[in-house]
Design brief:
By secondary structure, this protein is mostly beta strands. Helix content is 12%, strand content 64%. It has an eight-stranded antiparallel beta barrel with strand order 1-2-3-4-5-7-8-9.
């Protein structure tokens, strides 16, 4: 029985949905007051892992390299920017796997689990420390993600397909961002994605954690 865990999970999801759609409504209601509205593209490196509530194995998990790529709408005001977007983002981790032969000989190898998402972030960035034709910014916001596929490999053997029960479709969480804009067109950001959705089952907790470095270009 995991009634308490399920209730907390539903409560978090309900809160995240309300926060996300509140920011969507805020974005739409402030469009007429925006000073500049730009469209752009962003792409970069993801270093992802999965938080697991089993302390005996948490230290053995390693970061998995991947990527993020997509488009953004850059809605600028005097001191802040609202930046919704749509991204394809890879997450997952590397895990130790023990293989046992028919002769009962055990060996340890590395398995990878790659989760591929379509992700909808809505970030609010505070612009500060103006530089020539640009500024520094920091902020963040919620994201909602939909899993499109899962790929894994162990000992060189690949497995791919739709999301399993172990890695459910939905993902949601918070992004934290720091970065800069140069020449009013180029973006460079570092971010941390704190997944709040529980992708595990049978009482376990698995949540995405992603460090990202990306660059972007705004079309003016």
């Amino acid at each position: 029985m995991n009634t308490g865990i399920d209730y907390i999970t539903r409560l978090k999801f309900s809160f995240m949905k309300k926060l996300y759609f509140f920011l969507i409504l805020l974005t739409l209601s402030t469009l007429s007051f925006a000073q500049i509205i730009n469209y752009g593209i962003k792409a970069g490196l993801n270093l992802s892992t999965i938080y697991f509530n089993n302390s005996n194995t948490a230290g053995n998990y390693k970061y998995l390299s991947g990527f993020n790529a997509g488009g953004i709408v850059n809605i600028e005001f005097s001191n802040f920017t609202i930046q919704p977007g749509l991204f394809y983002s890879t997450k997952g981790d590397k895990v130790p796997v023990v293989l046992v032969t028919q002769n009962q000989i055990a060996s340890v190898t590395t398995g990878t689990n790659r989760l591929n998402y379509l992700e909808l972030p809505v970030n609010i960035l505070y612009n500060f420390l103006n530089i020539p034709q640009g500024n520094l910014h920091l902020g963040g916001g919620p994201y909602l993600g939909y899993g499109v596929s899962e790929k894994g490999s162990v000992n060189g053997k690949s497995i791919s397909g739709p999301f399993t029960e172990f890695a459910r479709n939905s993902d949601y969480g918070l992004n934290f961002i720091v970065g800069a804009r140069f020449m009013n067109k180029f973006l460079a950001d570092a971010s941390y994605g704190l997944g709040l959705a529980n992708s595990g089952g049978n009482g376990s907790t698995l949540q995405n954690r992603v460090i990202s470095f990306s660059v972007g270009y705004l079309f003016r």
